[in-house]
Design brief:
Elements (H helix, E strand, L loop, with lengths): L1 H21 L6 H34 L1 H19 L1 H19 L1 H18 L1 H10 L2 H11 L6 H19 L8
Helix pairs in contact: 7-8
Length: 178
């Protein structure tokens, strides 16, 4: 009898353990959220892939892809056949040669060097003057020091503003400034 009771107890214990392993452990809300987020992301990727494929299929069926490729080929053929590419390369070479031969490049480099030397030599005095000058004069000076992106009219106006201010600053005053 003891053996039968021991066998029954062992069977019950093993069956409980077997059932515990077969039953999934309860998931936390974090695990559930991350699982759902992963599924949502996977669905989103699948959806965008399908949409991209549908657009590609539509472009192929409607002839848009072939038309675009044909247009690109036509423009390329026209550019090559018209000589426009060769002409623009030749013209650019000629302009560069002319600028070198005429001395414009050397002149502008020398002028820029002289201007930079002037700024370097007179930097402290210029800074002191700019601190006393108004915002308009300071902006005009900065425009002249960095002319890229400004029109000729803007640069001319900035030059006039700075020269007027320098002329005014160079006049002797009746009263010494304190």
């Amino acid at each position: 009898m003891k053996r039968v009771a021991l066998i029954i107890a062992l069977v019950l214990a093993l069956s409980t353990a077997a059932m515990a392993e077969a039953t999934p452990a309860p998931t936390s809300s974090t695990d559930e959220f991350l699982s759902n987020l992963s599924k949502t992301w996977d669905s989103f990727l699948k959806m965008t892939n399908e949409a991209g494929q549908n657009i590609s299929d539509w472009a192929d069926k409607s002839g848009v892809s072939a038309w675009a490729q044909g247009a690109i080929n036509d423009v390329t053929a026209w550019l090559n056949g018209s000589g426009l590419v060769e002409w623009s390369q030749y013209t650019l070479t000629q302009l560069n040669t002319w600028m070198e031969q005429s001395g414009i490049n050397a002149w502008t480099e020398e002028l820029a060097s002289q201007f930079q030397t002037f700024i370097d030599q007179n930097g402290p005095a210029i800074e002191a003057w700019l601190q006393q000058a108004g915002k308009d004069i300071s902006d005009a000076w900065n425009m002249l020091a960095n002319p890229e992106g400004h029109t000729a009219e803007e640069l001319q106006q900035a030059y006039q503003t700075v020269t007027d201010a320098l002329t005014e600053a160079g006049k002797p005053t009746e009263k010494p400034q304190q």
